[in-house]
Amino acid sequence: DELGHKEKMYAHHFGQACWAGVRIILKQNSIESPVIFDMLLHVFSEMPMEEFKNHALAHGVTDEQWVWFLQYSASFFGNLGNYRNYGDSKFIPKLSEPSFRLIVQASGS
Q1: Minimal CA–CA distance to 40: which of 98, 93, 85, 94?
Q2: Cβ-based neighbour number of residue 106 at 10 Å
Q3: How far is residue 11's CA from residue 14's CA, in Å, rounded to a whole number?
Q4: Where are the alpha helices (DSSP H) in the chain?
Q5: Long-range contact list for 9-17, CB < 8 A, 24+ apart?
Q6: Which of the ends of the chain has fewer CB neighbours closer than 10 A, N or C?
Q7: What digits encode the pLDDT tens for the residues 77-91?
Q8: DSSP 3-state of 31
Q9: Sequential DSSP letters for 72-97
Q10: How does pLDDT run across 48-88, given as a tens digit for each residue?
Q11: Backbone φ/ψ region at 20: left (φ over 0), alpha (ψ -120 to 50), beta
């Protein structure tokens, strides 16, 4: 509440511009980054995290695979794409494709 109306409007529009720019950064990172971004956003917005984890474990995912999925997702969001932000180093999930699919399916998306 210490910000005046002008500062609040500036912060709001600055945040809107940053969010709009995410798509540009994703496309510059790799052609597949926007699709992965949308998928991860959708997966994490379907249900509360604890419920999501329980669904994944009930589908046969191990605790270790769950952690690997979270690590991949955090790296992806942190780098705004599937390449490290400091160079041409692509990263992939540690878990297998079938395990990754199980987790996505467990989200209900």
Answers
A1: 93
A2: 23
A3: 5
A4: 5-29, 33-45, 49-58, 63-79, 97-106
A5: none
A6: N
A7: 999 999 987 768 999
A8: coil
A9: HHHHHHHHTSSB-TTSS-B---SS-H
A10: 999 999 999 999 999 999 999 999 999 999 999 999 877 68
A11: alpha
